[in-house]
């Protein structure tokens, strides 16, 4: 009852799984800008624009730096980041005159650069040439954009405190208490600022709420990092009133940090910025139920003016995934067709007909391979997808054996009907749930896809025919018809929204850290303290 305690209970609850949105800060600098001014060097300013419904809208701008062709701007741009969206950005550099307004003359424009936020975070540091109007290079001018994530729960600490020779407030007081270890997130405790001063209060607990103040001390994470095996960190617990009144006052006891355990919780962007590549594979249904591709009613009909549903889904998802694969080469597979030269049915073939290398150059390369293969194959059946899932899972398993966070796979399966090999597919998904792999299935056409919902574990846990549950929920299924009246971006947003959480879940389960953690604060630090920050 009379044991010394802190006045405020330390936070023991941690925030839940990170959502897909993160806050990202962008810092900008330029080199070798054009010198537009006659007497002085250019006075540059960078304007950040975002694309909204096809229109470029100014989001923010930097300060103006006087007479400088190699500016490093202090202004930091803050944006919300969504993996499942193509977030188009444009950086425009202007020579600003006295009014600080953007000039309308061509010679005020020093160059611009367009990219996506996904490309920036995937590279972490992007350097691009500045272009003038009509795509002309602005001399040797370049712009550098550096990204850093600022949100998310990036870890928590478990702290153990004890004390010696505390002031005797009550006769039966425990003057050498050992407090129970507790956990607190780094964001809650110090906002990941290791120099932030923390005010720590020690009280004598009273069940009626009339706690007696014993003393206080101030600490920073920088100090607490000195803790190591066998060594403890301690602070004099001081009572300001006693310090003023008592000439020989030393302290009201000593508080000791006896143990500290750091638990890192990484975000999706930690892995991406650490160098994790996302490899995109598409698998296309070439069964006869799609209809003859030469017929305009076929789901595979190539209309020169309007992409079919297969192409719409492929481009919508592929456009986003391509930002996270540096070589921009994507595997493209087919199933359910008779293929040359012997026209035997295959449920796992490269649509470029190169069994040694099934990859295509960019999303456009996948589109061209798809269009080129249609006249060469015979649509057949049945709709078996287990072979392709097993194939990609085997590739992912090879990457998983590397034991680092260098690669993750996304398999997009486009099909016009319920799979025929449902039992084998369930087994394949259970096996694949142990690998760095997410599976997206898009149902094309007007078939009844009710039975396909079983593969999406949102309403329950998917199990193999023998009853073994998936390790992780890795499948997302949607019918394309639900998005017919919406933009392709809406489809991508729906099917990709769960991927960041699946990436983090896989690497966390394997206890694999990012190859190069984004937050340097988390490297050797952190030694938190049991208390409340100063106000």
UniProtKB/TrEMBL annotation:
GO molecular function terms attached to this record: calcium-dependent phospholipid binding; metal ion binding
Domain VWFA: 279-499
Residue ranges of domain C2 in the record: 1-130
PROSITE patterns on file: C2, VWFA
Pfam family, one: Copine
GO CC terms in record: plasma membrane
Keyword Signal applies: no
Source organism superkingdom: Eukaryota
The protein, known as: Copine 7
Lineage, opening ranks: Eukaryota, Metazoa, Chordata, Craniata, Vertebrata
């Amino acid at each position: 009852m009379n044991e010394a305690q802190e006045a405020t209970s330390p936070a023991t609850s941690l925030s839940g799984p990170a959502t897909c949105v993160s806050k990202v800060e962008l810092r900008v600098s330029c080199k070798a800008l054009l010198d537009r001014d006659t007497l002085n060097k250019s006075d540059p300013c960078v304007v950040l624009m975002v694309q909204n419904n096809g229109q470029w809208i100014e989001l923010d701008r930097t300060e103006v730096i006087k007479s400088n062709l190699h500016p490093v701007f202090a202004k930091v741009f803050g944006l919300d980041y969504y993996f499942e969206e193509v977030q188009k950005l444009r950086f425009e550099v202007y020579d600003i005159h006295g009014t600080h307004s953007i000039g309308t003359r061509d010679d005020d424009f020093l160059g611009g650069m367009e990219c996506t936020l996904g490309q920036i975070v995937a590279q972490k540091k992007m350097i691009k040439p500045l272009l003038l109007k009509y795509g002309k290079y602005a001399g040797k001018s370049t712009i550098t954009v550096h990204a850093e994530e600022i949100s998310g729960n990036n870890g928590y600490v478990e702290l153990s405190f004890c004390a010696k020779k505390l002031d005797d407030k009550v006769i039966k007081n425990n003057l050498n208490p050992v407090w129970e270890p507790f956990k607190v997130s780094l964001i809650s405790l110090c906002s990941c600022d290791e120099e932030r001063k923390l005010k720590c209060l020690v009280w004598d607990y009273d069940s009626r709420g009339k706690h007696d103040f014993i003393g206080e001390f101030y600490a920073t994470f920088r100090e607490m990092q000195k803790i190591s095996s066998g060594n403890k960190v301690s602070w004099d617990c001081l009572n300001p009133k006693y310090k003023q009144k008592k000439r020989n006052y030393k302290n009201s006891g000593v508080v000791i940090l006896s143990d500290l355990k750091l638990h890192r919780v990484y975000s999706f962007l930690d892995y991406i910025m650490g160098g994790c590549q996302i490899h995109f594979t598409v698998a296309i249904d070439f069964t006869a139920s799609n209809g003859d591709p030469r017929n305009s009613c076929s789901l595979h009909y190539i209309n020169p003016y309007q992409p079919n549903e297969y192409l719409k889904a492929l481009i919508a998802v592929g456009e986003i995934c391509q930002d996270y694969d540096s070589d921009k080469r994507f595997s493209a597979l087919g199933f359910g067709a008779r293929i040359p030269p012997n026209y035997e049915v295959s449920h796992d073939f490269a649509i470029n007909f190169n069994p040694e290398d099934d990859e295509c150059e960019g999303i456009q390369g996948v589109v061209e391979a798809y269009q080129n293969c249609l006249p060469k194959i015979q649509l057949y059946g049945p709709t078996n997808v287990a072979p392709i899932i097993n194939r990609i899972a085997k590739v992912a398993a090879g990457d998983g054996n590397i034991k680092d966070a260098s690669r993750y796979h996304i398999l997009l399966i486009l099909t016009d009907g319920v799979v025929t090999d449902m039992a084998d597919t369930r087994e394949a998904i259970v096996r694949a749930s142990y690998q760095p792999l997410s599976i997206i299935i898009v149902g094309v056409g007007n078939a009844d896809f009710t039975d396909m919902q079983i593969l999406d574990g949102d309403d329950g846990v998917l199990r193999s025919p023998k009853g073994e549950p998936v390790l992780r929920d890795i499948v997302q299924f949607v019918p394309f018809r639900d998005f017919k009246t919406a933009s392709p971006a809406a489809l991508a947003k729906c099917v990709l929204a769960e991927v960041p959480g699946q990436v983090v879940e896989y690497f966390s389960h394997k206890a694999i850290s990012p190859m190069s953690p984004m937050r340097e604060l988390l490297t050797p630090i952190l030694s938190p303290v049991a208390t409340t920050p100063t106000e």
